[in-house]
Amino acid sequence: MKCTKCGEKAVYQGHGQAYCKEHFLDYFESKVFRTFRKYQLIKQTDKVCVAASGGKDSLTVLYMTMKYCKRHNIDFFALCIDEGIAGYRDHTVDDLTLFCKKYDIPYKVVSFKVKFGAGLDEIREQAMKEYNKKPCTVCGILRRALLNRASRELGATKLVTGHNLDDESQSYLMNLFQGNMRHNAGLGPITGLQQNKHFIPRVKPLYFITEKETRLFCLLRGFKVNFTECPNIHLSFRAKVRDTVNRLEADQPGIKQGIVNAFLEILPMLKENYRDSKPFTYCEKCGEPSAGKICNVCRLEDELCLDVQ
Amino acid sequence: MKVFIEKEQKHLEFTEPCTGTELLKKLDVPETTILLVRNGEVILPDEMLNVGDDIQLLSVVSGG
Predict the structure, then answer these.
(1) Helix, strand or coil, per DSSP, at residue A254
(2) Model-level pTM?
(3) Does residue A227 belong to the interface with chain B, where contact is any CB pair within 8 Å?
(4) SS3 for B44?
(5) Would you tell me which residues 257-296 of chain A have a C-beta closer than 8 angstroms to some C-beta of chain B?
(6) Which of A19, A55, A76, B60 is the right S-S partner for A23, CB 3.0 to 4.6 Å?
(7) What pLDDT sits at residue A300?
(8) Which residues contact B9 (CB under 8 A, 6 or more apart)?
């Protein structure tokens, strides 16, 4: 197949177009910059924190955010959360460190071990056996909280994440299957329902980019990305939804985009419906924003005997 | 042809030429989940894979 723009050998096919390396990179970067602009993800006055693990999505979003911020003279840095998953996160942290040094990007690594007194490997068994909690649930709660706290402490006003079209379509379906439309109201290119100084707004420049496009971008740009899979991923509900959506997409290309397009149509109504449905409350123990009297991190701290710093 | 499946870290060998699409069907791998690389270059699955080729199926699915 030939590139529809120049007739060179194509490396990518999608949306009725085929692109060679050069035109794929143009297509990809234009699409991401369009998302930055359309949703006004970052303002000139922002201090931008990019959540980066060293995997393909985070290296790509870090590279694209770097380009955008340099073009608009915006202050930015990378923040990595090391959950303490041996054989997985240690490799990607090494990749991130090399990447940041190569592009001269300021970065900081914050670990579960230092902030919570234990890495995920150490609390995994107890969480599963004694509390019937999946490691991904525990990891998600602690990682989200730490990203918010650390980026806020470092002075960030926006938190950029590498969430992509695949992630968003999966999240929407997971919440739908679990009957949790309130959580869906918090999704979108800019997350959250209510503005609050304790919450750093999360923005997703790769919102309309598929995982396949991201991996191809990394390969063609020459980013060092090792394929490593979290050893806990097979236990998650997300993995089941992801595999199902991928099968559907193979049979009928465009499914993921269709799911996200349909979601974006109803998102304003969901935000309107849920915005003021619950007053903003704070954890009685740590003072962080919380849905209940005690936040999820403090609950985990008690159950798993963590030592939150 | 030598085939490396990255996700499973598995090496296979095939003795008959086929297209990328046919190979993926044989392996029951959805096209949306991989990049097809022939002799170090990304190709689309409609291309022919020959006996001496070195093929990689790179996983595009997030690991965590």
Answers:
(1) coil
(2) 0.92
(3) yes
(4) coil
(5) none
(6) A19
(7) 86
(8) none
- Determine if residue A222 is left, alpha or beta; phi over 0 gives left, psi from -120 to 50 gives alpha, anything else beta: left
Which of B44, B46, B61 lies closest to A211 in CB terms? B61
Q: Please, which pLDDT band fits residue B22 given cuts at 50, 70 and 90?
A: very high
The whole-angstrom separation of Cα A47 and Cα A29 is 22
Structure tokens at B59: 């996983």
> Which has more confidence, A195 or B24?
B24
Say which of B31, B46, B59 has its CB closest to residue A227.
Answer: B59
> Of A120, A295, A307, whose CA–CA distance to A199 is shortest?
A295
Q: What is the pLDDT of residue B2?
A: 97
Q: What is the pLDDT of residue B64?
A: 54
**Coil, helix or strand at residue A50:** strand
| Percent of chain A predicted with pLDDT > 90 | 65
Q: Higher confidence at residue A273 or residue A230?
A: A273
The complex's ipTM works out to: 0.94
The count of other CB atoms within 10 Å of the CB of residue A257 is 16
Residue of A nearest to B6 (CA): A227
Is A204 part of the contact surface with chain B (CB cutoff 8 Å)? no
Which residues of chain B have a CB within 8 Å of the CB of A13? 44
pLDDT score of A9 more than 90: yes
Task: Give the C-alpha separation, B50 to B35, whole Å.
Answer: 18
Pairing of strands A12-14, A17-19: antiparallel
Contact A229, B7 (CB under 8 A): yes
Place of tokens 């234990």: A118
Residue A8 pLDDT > 70: yes
A212 exposure class (CB count in 10 Å sphere: 0-12, 13-18, 19+): buried
Sole residue written with tokens 């009928």: A252
Contacts of A219 in chain B (CB under 8 A): 35, 42, 58
Residues A35, A282: Cα–Cα separation, whole Å = 33
**Of residues B59, B63, B54, B10, the one with CA closest to residue A212:** B59
Position of tokens 């995997």?
A55
Closest CB to B35: pick one of A166, A167, A212. A212
